């Protein structure tokens, strides 16, 4: 039995931190896992900026409420879920995800959580498990599932390479060039066909 493991941001919805960067007028917050492979370093960078500008969780949530799935994402996800079990494995946070999951039709999501003060300041974060994407894929495989994985960023490469098939979707030229052995797609129709072909293999 196959389980398809998808990244969230950049694959199904816009990058949350980029959208918040635009809304807040702080360009430094547009840095994502496409730019920085070290997730701990990236998150500390973000937390330092939020602290410096006195930005609270509710300000980010206001922006997230307005984010819509990428064009064609809902149709792609619905079509894929008719063919296979799908799990979204993301480095986003429970406190961010609810509006996006509602707009995507409540798919299964494995993600992390934020630590906040009583005043709503984000003080830290808690990873669900070490190397969460790779660990989750290996756990599914240990239960007898074959995994097919896809994402767009540095932090997706481990789960992609650990799966029986893996793809890049709407990734950067730098990531695609450095991982030229991984099939890359920008169109949902072609992406769906590539995944479907692996389901039957």
Tell me about this structure.
The protein has a domain at 2-14 and 70-111 and 128-199: Rossmann fold (3-Layer(aba) Sandwich), CATH 3.40.50. It has a seven-stranded mixed beta sheet with strand order 4-3-2-1-5-6-7, with helices on both faces. The model has no long low-confidence stretch (mean pLDDT 96). It is α/β, with parallel strands linked by helices and 201 residues long. It has helices at 16-24, 39-52, 57-64, 73-83, 94-103, 132-142, 157-162, 173-178, 188-199, and strands spanning 2-6, 85-93, 108-116, 122-126, 146-151, 165-169, 183-185. Helices cover 43% and strands 21% of the residues. The longest helix is centred in the N-terminal third of the chain and has 14 residues, at 39-52. It has nine helices and seven strands; from the N terminus they run βααααβαββαβαβαβα. The radius of gyration is 17 Å and the shape is globular. Helix 8 links the parallel strand 6 and strand 7 (183-185).
Label this structure with key terms.
Rossmann fold; single chain; 7 strands; alpha/beta; globular; 201 residues
CATH superfamily of the domain at 2-14 and 70-111 and 128-199: HAD superfamily/HAD-like
Q: CATH architecture of the domain at 2-14 and 70-111 and 128-199, please?
A: 3-Layer(aba) Sandwich
SSE order, one letter for each helix or strand: EHHHHEHEEHEHEHEH
Calculate Rg over CA atoms.
17 Å
Distance from first to last alpha carbon: 11 Å
The CATH class of the domain at 2-14 and 70-111 and 128-199 is Alpha Beta
Proportion of β residues?
15-25%
- Fraction of residues in H or I helices: 40-55%
């Amino acid at each position: 039995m196959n389980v398809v493991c998808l990244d969230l941001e950049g694959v199904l919805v816009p990058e949350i931190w980029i959208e918040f960067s635009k809304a807040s007028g702080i360009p430094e917050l547009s840095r994502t896992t496409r730019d920085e492979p070290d997730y701990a370093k990236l998150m500390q960078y973000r937390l330092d900026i939020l602290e410096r500008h006195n930005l609270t969780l509710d300000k980010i949530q206001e922006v997230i409420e307005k984010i819509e799935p990428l064009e064609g994402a809902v149709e792609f996800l619905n079509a894929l879920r008719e063919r296979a079990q799908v799990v979204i494995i993301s480095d986003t946070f429970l406190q961010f995800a609810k509006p996006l999951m509602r707009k995507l039709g409540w798919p299964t999501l494995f993600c992390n959580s934020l630590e906040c003060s009583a005043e709503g300041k984000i003080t830290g974060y808690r990873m669900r498990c070490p190397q969460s994407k790779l660990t989750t894929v290996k756990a599914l495989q240990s239960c007898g599932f074959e995994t097919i994985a896809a994402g767009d960023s540095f932090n997706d490469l481990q789960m992609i390479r650990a799966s029986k098939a893996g793809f890049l979707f709407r990734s950067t030229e730098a990531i695609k060039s450095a991982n030229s052995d991984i099939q890359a797609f920008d169109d949902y129709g072609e992406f769906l066909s590539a995944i479907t072909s692996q389901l039957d293999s």
